[in-house]
Design brief:
This protein is of the alpha/beta class. The protein has helices spanning 8-11, 15-30, 72-90; strands spanning 2-7, 39-44, 60-67, 97-104, 110-111, 114-115. Helix 2 packs antiparallel against helix 3.
Length: 128
Amino acid sequence: MIVIYGIKEHLNPIKALLSDVIQQSMSSALGLPDDKRAHRFIAMNKEDFYYPQGRSDAYTVIEINMMQGRQVQTKQKLIKTLFNEIETQLGILPIDIEITIHEQPAHCWGFRGMTGDEAQDLKYRVDV
């Protein structure tokens, strides 16, 4: 699951394309299927969204939640792919993007009535 935060005047007009860019990056770097999309957009009022000095109103935070198991190099590739593709396709500079990856053990995930460690039918690999 991915949660994206930004100022609503900047985030709302681009969220469909940003979702596509994020999904393409996840598929490229992690091998996720195209239909494995779980994105949540939190469009905030400017007065409710504080961000570091030197950033513009295009500042966007991307929190990626996923099961543990990916190699460090795989996660680094994902982050760099996101920076590159967001800048290329949306014109948002890397200075205005913050990405965090939160990993949890498979047994901490619940979906389709089971825990992640019980799932035997995932269409993607976690150990990449």
